[in-house]
Amino acid sequence: MRSQGLDAHRSDRASHGWQPIGRDAAIAALEAEGEALDALRALARDLRDAGKGRTITYSRKAFFPVTNLCRDRCAYCTFRRDEGEDGAWTMQPDEIRAWAERARDLDCIEALMCLGDKPEAAFAGHRAFLASRGHASTIGYVAEACRIALDAGLLPHSNPGLMTPADLALLRPLNVSLGLMLETVSPALRRKGHAHYYAPDKEPELRLNVLRDAGELRIPFTTGILIGIGESLADRVDSLIAIAGLHQRYGHVQEVIVQNFRAKPEIPMATCDEPDTLDLARTVAVARLVLGPDVSVQVPPNLSPEGLAYLLDSGIDDLGGISPLTPDYVNPEAPWPHLAALARDCARAGYRLAERLPIYPAYVDRAEFLDDGLRERVLAARATIDARNAEGVAA
Questions:
Q1: What's the confidence (pLDDT) of residue 171?
Q2: What is the predicted pLDDT for the residue at 341?
Q3: What is the 3-state secondary structure (H, E, C) of the chain?
Q4: I need a surface site. Which of 12, 114, 153, 288 has the fewest CB within 10 A?
Q5: How much is the average pLDDT of 21-29?
Q6: 121, 103, 125, 124: which is closest to 113 by C-alpha?
Q7: How confident is the model over 70-79, as a mean pLDDT?
Q8: 198 CB contacts (<8 Å, ≥6 apart)?
Q9: Is residue 1 very low, low, confident or very high in pLDDT (cuts 50, 70, 90)?
Q10: Is residue 1 included in any domain, yes or no?
Q11: What is the pLDDT of residues 296-328, one digit of tens each?
C-alpha cells in the first residue's frame, strides 16, 4: 500500500485507478470537519459509485440466537448470560426448526446463527447439553442448527465467535458465508478497566488468525470494526488496514461492517459517549478509501436511524440483514426499520434498495468459494431474489 494524502489520492484515482489511502492520511481524515469532511465523503461516495453503483443492498434474514451463554464479558454487551442467570437461553432443535420454517414462510433467505463465544469452556451444564446431542463443542451444535435451517430452505450464515481451522472446515459445507467481527486490533482494550479486559476471545491476534484461516479455506467472509469502545483513531485505521491486507492476499472479505457503540443502562460502559453521525460517517468514508470500490461497506440501519441519508452519501452500499420475524438480539432496544419505509428513504436520497443473498454475487460463480453441495440452493435463491428485485419488492 502506498502512503499518500487525500489530494494525491483524489488525482491518482482519477488518472490511474484506485489506490488505498495511506495510514497517516486516513488517521487525519477521521478528524475532518466542514469542507474537508464534505470532500472526504464525496471521494468515498464516488469510489462506491464506481464499484457498486447507486444500489443499496440488504439481506432478508431470521436471527437465530443459538445460545447467549458466553465466557467473555465485554463491557458493552447485553446479549451474553451466565448459566442459570435470568434470560439465559440455548435454542433447542425443535425451536430452531420452527423458527426456520416460519422464516421461510415469511420469504427469508438468510439464517443468521449468532451466539456467545466458547460457552463450553465456562459452563458445565452447557457441556452436558452438548454431550447429550453428541457434540464436543458449541461449534458442533451450530453445525446441527445449520443443517436444520438448510432442510427448511434457508441459507445459513454463522457468526459463532472464534473458530479453529477445523471449525471453519466443519461449517463451510453448511454455510454460504461465515463471519467474525474483528472489532479492533488494539491490544490496549484487553487491559484492566477497558472494554475487553474480561474477554479472552477478543484478543486481536486470535481474531486475525480466524480471518486468515478463512481466507486460506476460501470462505466468503464478513468482518468489521466496532467504534466508540475506547479505541484510538489510529486503532480504527490499523484495524481497517489489517482487514484490507488479508483481503488483498486471499480475496475473501465480502463485506466490512462499521458498527457504532450504543450505550445501554445495564452495561459497565453505560455512561460512555456514543459515536455521533459525523464520527460514523468519517469512519465509513475512510473504510471505503482503505478497502476500495469492490468490498461492501455496511452500517446497521437500526443503530443510526436518523442519519441514513448522510451515511449513504458517505460511501456505504449495504445495510446488512433485516428480519421480518426476529429482533436484533444484540441490540434489542433498536428495532429493524420497515423495509418499505427504508426503500422510500433510500429513494429520496437517490438510491435503490435491493435484496441480496448472504453470499455476495462475486463469490457465487467462483467454485472455490462455494461448496458444491450448496450451489443448487444458492442458484435457486438467487433466481428468487432476482425476480423480487425486478418487481421492485422491498417488503
A1: 98
A2: 85
A3: CCCCCHHHHHHHHHHHCCCCCCHHHHHHHCCCCHHHHHHHHHHHHHHHHHHHCCEEEEEEEEEEEEECECCCCCCCCCCCECCCCCCCCECCHHHHHHHHHHHHHCCCCEEEEEECCCHHHCCHHHHHHHHHCCCCCHHHHHHHHHHHHHHCCCEEEEECCCCCHHHHHHHHHHCCEEECCCECCCHHHHCCCCCCCCCHHHCHHHHHHHHHHHHHCCCCEEEEEEECCCCCHHHHHHHHHHHHHHHHHHCCEEEEEEEECCCCCCCCCCCCCCCCHHHHHHHHHHHHHHHCCCCEEECCHHHCCCCHHHHHCCCCCEEEEECCCCCCCCCCCCCCCCHHHHHHHHHHCCCEEEECCCCCHHHHCCHHHCCHHHHHHHHHHHHHHHHHHHCCCCC
A4: 12
A5: 97
A6: 103
A7: 95
A8: 72, 73, 74, 75
A9: very low
A10: no
A11: 999 988 777 678 999 999 999 999 988 777 655
Is 70 exceeded by the pLDDT of residue 58?
yes
Task: Please state, as a whole number, how many other Cβ atoms lie within 10 Å of the Cβ of residue 140.
Answer: 16
Count of CA atoms in the C-beta half-sphere (13 A) of 148 = 23
Would 345 be classed as within a structural domain?
A: yes
Q: How far, rounded to the nearest angstrom, does the alpha carbon of residue 142 sit from its chain's CA centroid?
A: 18
- Pairing of β 110-115 and β 55-67: parallel
Residue 193 has pLDDT above 90, yes or no: yes
Whether 119 maps to a domain, the answer reads yes
> What number of CA atoms fall less than 13 Å from residue 223's CA on the CB side?
32
Cβ burial, residue 2 (10 Å; 0-12/13-18/19+): exposed
**Domain-embedded: residue 210:** yes
CATH code for the domain in which residue 54 is found: 3.20.20.70
For 204, 229, 285, 305, the CA distances from 225, given in Å and listed in that order, are 11, 10, 13, 19
Q: Span 277-293, mean pLDDT?
A: 97
pLDDT category at 12 given cuts 50, 70, 90 is: very low
How many domains are there within the chain?
1
